[in-house]
Amino acid sequence: MIIPCYFETMSEANQKPNILWLCTDQQRFDTIRTLGNSKINTPNLDRLAEGGVSYTNAFCQSPVCTPSRASFLTGRYPRTTRCRQNGQHIPEDEILLPKLFADAGYHCGLAGKLHLASCSGGKIEDRIDDGYHDFQWSHHPQPDWGGDNAYTAWLSAKGLKWEELYDNPPSGSKFWKKGIPAEYHQTTWCAEETIRFLTENRNRPWFFSFNCFAPHHPFDPPAEFMERYDPGEMPLPKRKEGELEQKPGFQKLDAEWAHNSPGEFHTGAMTEKDQREVCAAYYAMCEHIDSEVGRILDALEDTGQAGKTLVVFMSDHGEMLGDHGIYFKGPHFYDEAIKVPLLLRLPGLFDGGKTCKDLVELIDLAPTLLEVAGLTAPPDRLQGQSLINSTRKRESVYCEYYNSWTHSDAYATMLRTRDEKIVVYHGTDQGEYYDLRTDPDEFDNRFHDSSAEDAVRRMLLRSFDTSVFTMDPGPVREGPF
């Protein structure tokens, strides 16, 4: 059943629900079976979708972690948060959504990564006043931080070491590895922390962030989930012969070495067998996530909280997975990189197994969650628009990359409507323009095509207008002069 994206009423019974925010890392939009991918097994996400609302055109505001997370956790564009790059620290005066909920009396918790500050080289992530009372932090599962990583401490308490469990025995592939057994996996740990939190806090309103690292690369699912997939049945990446010749130069580099980092992941050396195995590994990682989501949903039922908990499932950005010759992420604005799964479930409001095809930005979540709980943000801060009781549908979505990761110094912005997409690589003569009506797979870049000159000019003007209209709406105007 297809419905409009916006809902008109909110029952009194759902004014103050709990918030369960399930956010994965680098999960593509097309990884949920009930929404069209028959090659993947996701019975629990299917269950969530069939009881809630599926947003099938949801887009992040940056194709890499930190700026995207800073954006949807504040309801503001990356340029506005001033947290535009991986490795940057979000400014102290930014107000995160859990802080608003904590100030309103919610008990807030997190398990997994936050990534609003640098945490490379074994550095513990610095925090602003983020509102989280129960902060179980683990940026990624590798034991870079010793006992300061809550996940590593959990393993240590069991007498285990991650490095002794990992890729044992080796997979025999240069492109995917055997992860540690599911019962000891970081995704499983995140789920156990979530279940503990929602059980202990069942008698007061709560807000919890489940932030596992999977299915972020490296491709390393638990062996028992990898065994569920026959690589021979997996699809090959979506590519068109010769398409890279009309694409920006750094895409050619990434098509040889992922992240343009020789020695890391030799994309150009992959056989079709390698490509299918990596797809199987990625799907296996997604299915493991699904399994843990199922345990969490069951815990909500068992504790009598399913009827009063808004469940959000999403990811911070996508994964190229070999499409267009590219793996991982970067300054890439293909739908595979910026379109994400988004499921919402709350009985009486987001329910009924409905599907919404309207354009949605992840910054729309902040005003939506606040409105569901009857809360408000400081004036002139939020830039998203609530999915509740709104008569204005988005005509476009906007995405930004400002030297956002160390492997590429690109500065780029993207505007996408239902029918067209334009990407501008600022300071260069490079760009991308796709007519999605005739080229939905984004194979044919017509940015320099003379026959598309009028369309490119029109979209450039529209993109420039959007860059102006997405400036910080604050501070509040105090008078006429």
Describe the protein.
It is built from 13 helices and 16 strands. The strands form three sheets. It has a nine-stranded mixed beta sheet, with helices on both faces. It has a four-stranded antiparallel beta sheet with strand order 13-14-15-16, with helices on one face. A three-stranded mixed beta sheet has the order 9-4-12. It is globular and about 65 Å long. The longest helix is centred in the middle third of the chain and has 31 residues, at 272-302. Strand 13 and strand 14 (411-416) form a beta hairpin. Helix content is 26%, strand content 15%.
Give short descriptive properties of this protein.
disordered N terminus, Alkaline Phosphatase, subunit A, 9-stranded mixed sheet, alpha/beta, 481 residues
Summed up:
By secondary structure, the protein is an alpha/beta fold. The protein has 13 helices and 16 strands. Helix 1 packs across helix 10 (272-302) and helix 7 (186-200) runs parallel beside helix 10.
Layout of secondary structure:
Blueprint: E1 2-3, E2 18-24, H1 43-51, E3 53-55, E4 58-59, H2 65-74, H3 78-81, H4 97-103, E5 107-112, E6 134-137, H5 150-157, H6 162-165, H7 186-200, E7 206-211, H8 223-226, H9 249-254, H10 272-302, E8 309-315, H11 335-338, E9 339-340, E10 342-345, E11 354-356, E12 360-361, H12 365-372, E13 397-402, E14 411-416, E15 420-425, E16 431-435, H13 453-469
Parallel strand pairs: 1-11, 2-7, 2-8, 3-11, 4-12, 5-6, 5-7
Antiparallel strand pairs: 3-10, 4-9, 8-10, 13-14, 14-15, 15-16
